[in-house]
Amino acid sequence: MLFYTDEFPERRRHLNESNLLFPAVVRSAPEHKPVIDQLKNDHGHGEARVREP
């Protein structure tokens, strides 16, 4: 289960969201940029949270 949690969301889905989805959302709805920025920040700290005891 830890492998899946680390491999899929952290390395695949979040990468696609950050590179493809988030920029598209900000372009089409710039008022949501603060929310997108928070999600990007959460993604940046997610891997460490998966590995915490």
Write the layout of secondary structure elements.
Elements: H1 2-28, H2 33-51
Write up what this structure looks like.
The protein has 53 residues and is mostly helical. 87% of the residues lie in helices and 0% in strands. It has two helices and no strands. The protein has helices at 2-28, 33-51. It is elongated and about 35 Å long. The chain starts with a helix and ends with a helix. The mean pLDDT is 81.
Strand coverage percent = under 5%
How confident overall, as mean pLDDT? 81
Rg measurement, Å: 12 Å
Question: Can you tell me the overall shape?
Answer: elongated
Percent in helix: over 70%
Global structural class: mainly alpha
Terminal CA distance:
15 Å
Q: What's the oligomerization state?
A: single chain
User: N-to-C SSE series?
Assistant: HH
Summed up, the helix count is 2
Instruction: Give the strand tally.
Output: 0
Characterize the biggest β-sheet.
none
Low-confidence sequence ranges: none
Tag the structure with descriptive keywords.
2 helices, mainly alpha, 53 residues
Write a short abstract of this structure.
By secondary structure, the protein is an all-alpha fold. It has helices at residues 2-28, 33-51. The two termini are 15 Å apart.
